[in-house]
Amino acid sequence: MADDFCKFFDAMTAEYTLHPTGKRKYHRNSTMSKM
Which domain of life is it from (predicted)? Predict the structure, then answer.
């Protein structure tokens, strides 16, 4: 489980570095709608 989370976290970090501004706002919106 920890390994999967690490991989997932790595993927998210990579996306953040690729698109720092646009992705962040979009991710925040999707997280809010899920709640």
Answer: Bacteria
